[in-house]
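Dear Dr. H.,

I hope your travels went smoothly. While you were away I took the liberty of generating a structure for the chain from your last submission, since the lab meeting agenda had it listed for discussion. I wanted you to have the full record in hand beforehand rather than looking at slides cold. The sequence, exactly as received, is reproduced here:
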Amino acid sequence: MGPFIELNVFLKKHNLASTGGQAKVIIQSGVVKVNNEVETRNRRKLHANDVVEFQNKKYTVAEELCR
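The corresponding predicted structure, in token form, is as follows:
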């Protein structure tokens, strides 16, 4: 399906988690949504224009973040 970025890496790049371990705990706690659905998979592949919601803020995945 083309270039992607993993959810845990996305959280770190946006300074929503300081470490990979912290990102994993956040994701597995069920407080992150991807495209309006709760996501608990740490390595969920995100593609350009996917929407990540965390702490009542929405972030759209930019194409340049995907490799």
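Two observations you may find useful: The chain has two helices and six strands. Helices lie at 7-13, 20-28.

With kind regards,
E. W.
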